[in-house]
Amino acid sequence: MHVDKVKHDFEPKIVALVCTWCTYAGADLAGTSRMQYPPNVRVVKFPCTGRIDPVFILRAFQKGADGVLVSGCHPGDCHYMAGNFHARRRFAAFRKLLEFVGVDLSRLQFSWVSAAEGGKWVEMVTELTERVRQLGPLTEFRELELAEQWSGSTLTTPELKEAYQAI
Amino acid sequence: MNKTARKHDSAVLVDEGYWSSVSQAIQQEAVRLLEQGAVAGVVGYIAGRRTGTAMPVVAATPDEARQLIFSPACVNNLALYFTKAKKEVSSKGKLAIVAKGCDLRALAGLMGESQLKREDVYIIGIACAGVYGAHADRSQPLCDATIARKCRECTVHEPTGADAVAGTLPALQKLEPLEAQELARLEAMTPQERWAFWKEHFSRCIRCLACRQVCPFCFCEQCLCDRNRPQSVETTPRPAGNTAWHIVRAMHLAGRCGGCAECERVCPMDIPLNLLNRKMAKELKELYDYEAGLTPQEKGPLTEYKEDDDESFIK
Q1: Rounded CA separation B230/B223 (Å)
Q2: What end-to-end distance do the CA atoms of chain A give, in Å?
Q3: What is the three-class DSSP state of A145?
Q4: DSSP class of residue A67?
């Protein structure tokens, strides 16, 4: 299978946080089946989606990911019985929090990909890569990373301004 | 934080007699408990050195118990003294606590999380009319201008599940729900505007971590945010680490926060932290029909699951 390579202006970085039992095996299947998918994705393997702390997602965004994919076993298939059920609730809440802070949720994708679903893995990665490509680079977190320190110029209250200037 | 534009009504909300009657009731109950030897100490408030202030104290003798008061300056959430983080207090033996409605919610949460057993604490609940806000002019009595934001829309004026109740609740005026309005205003914004709003607030954070120290639910012996190697959250007061810290804090309190708003009160940089907590509480109520701290519940919404939970956001 030959796919023509297309040159793009912006290559998104996608971080995939995956469960070792299902999605990692699914991605492996996609590889052994010689399926093509965008090389933009970096896979990080976890024992279970239940182990994926929301901090990891934040950290990925902060360290330059333009999109994050979290993927694990279908409900009921968890190697540890209920890890993905717990993860499902946690991520539902975390999404609401990110939304409230103002993060674009279309950069964060959750999915269930089993070990037999190499095709679905390819589909998920391609879809997310294309979507993030359309959205462009994630600048918000990068700006925060680049901002050197707390800046006195943005102080809003007169008392604080005065105190800052007196230092 | 919208402090300037609004006109405050300086009419006194509750008359003096209410505070002294509550104080007397607390003293009576505390003295009785200590004289009978039912408890080793009473965690309550005494008057501070400056007028219009109060501070937490563990009264261990009847004489000390006669000093206990309740006034609008009794802002602290005393449930904090019953956590692992304050072992020197909780190891004294059975204690009694003077608790406002919001403190009771924290106590119920701690019981649900096996930090505290109901039989190990004697609760003197207060029919609470409200306390001072963080920047209140304490020379004034409790009025529209000085009452805390959380008290404006309090749902737990009457304590439930307490062993004794001090005071009777006076008729309370309905106040403008500032927090709910602010929350609605934020929810109506676009994501970019919300990001700008929080960015501005978080950029002021100096990472003093007072919000963590004062929270009854932040009792981990080692905080994730203090760890390096691997570091999860940057510890220096830079914008990136600040944003991460506040998101992590709100996430860890999701479904647990009792809404005492102590984090917001102690914040030296006036970051409206309780908005995040309120938002999460609201979302978890909508998602899993769960409200933290009304009764001790064995499992919080994020530590249990149902097989048919909503997964419309998962592909």
Answers
A1: 13
A2: 67
A3: helix
A4: E
Q: What is this structure's pTM? A: 0.88
Q: A14-60, pLDDT tens digit by residue?
A: 999 999 999 999 999 999 999 999 999 999 999 999 999 999 999 99
Amino acid at B90: S
- Name the pairing type of β-strands B95-99 and B41-47: parallel
Query: With an 8 Å Cβ cutoff, are B195 and A155 in contact?
Result: no
List the single residue in B194, B232, B310 with the smallest CB-CB distance to A101: B194
- Dist. CA B102–CA B127, nearest whole Å: 11
Distance (Å) from the alpha carbon of B191 to chain A's nearest alpha carbon: 4
Which pair of structure tokens corresponds to residue B314? 């998962």
Q: How many CA atoms lie within 13 A of A91 on its CB side?
A: 29
Residues of A in contact with B285 (CB under 8 A): none
- Residues of A within 8 A of B238 (CB-CB) are 144, 147-150
Question: Hey, what are B96's tokens?
Answer: 């009694």
Q: Which of B70, B78, B71 is nearest to B140 (CA)?
A: B71
Q: Which residue has the tokens 């039992």?
A: A21
Q: How far apart are CA B254 and CA B250, in angstroms?
A: 6
Determine the Cα–Cα distance for residues B294 and B297; give it in Å rounded to an integer. 9
Cα–Cα distance for residue pair B210/B264, rounded to 1 Å: 9
ipTM for this model? 0.88
